[in-house]
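Q: I have 102 residues here and want to know how they pack in 3D. Can you give me a structure?
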Amino acid sequence: MEIKIGLKKIEFNVKKSRGIKGLMFCQRENADALVFKSQGAIHSCFVFFDFLVLWLDSENRVVDYKIVKPWNLCEKSGKKFDKILEIPINQRYEEVIGEILS
């Protein structure tokens, strides 16, 4: 998947989430980045590690982002978006997260 943040384009492997489970009950180092269609808020109940959430428009441009802590009951963006991308903060995605946050 390619995402756009400002003038940068970043390509990395993302899995399409089945249902609404997201990163719940995953182990940090084995967790995959997940994308899913959503128009609402997310929570991080039963997610036992921090993760980066990106709210994307229809052209995969980042409209908002936030690092989410475990057991947060509600995270949402005040901006219009089409998809949510959850990226676990682990060794596999360290470089990608660095690019996004820089």
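Q: Anything worth noting?
A: Helices lie at 94-101. The mean pLDDT is 93.
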